[in-house]
Amino acid sequence: MATTAAAVAAAVARARREVRGYFEEHGAFDPAHAVQFDPPKRLHEKQLEQLIGRGIIKETMEGRYWFDREAYRLEQERRAAAAKQMMVVIAVVAALAVAAAAIIRFLH
Q: What is the domain partition of the chain in residue ranges?
């Protein structure tokens, strides 16, 4: 099951990179350079929807799309900050577990 989950995660990440890459290849970084995008697979369509939902890919009135690099950068910064916070929480929990084990061993 873990192998299947890893394969799905890899496929999702690849589709996300391919969607982003499409806009990069076409220089679609502002409304004036927006492009048509027809997702080749359902997975690409889902990634496009998620990127639109997060404000990273924007749609023009004409149904064309462009990649907002500033929104993407801000999302990357937010994810990095969240990962750092999670690492701090894990480190604190690990330190507390070690301290608790030491206290229990000392008391017995």
A: 2-67, 79-108
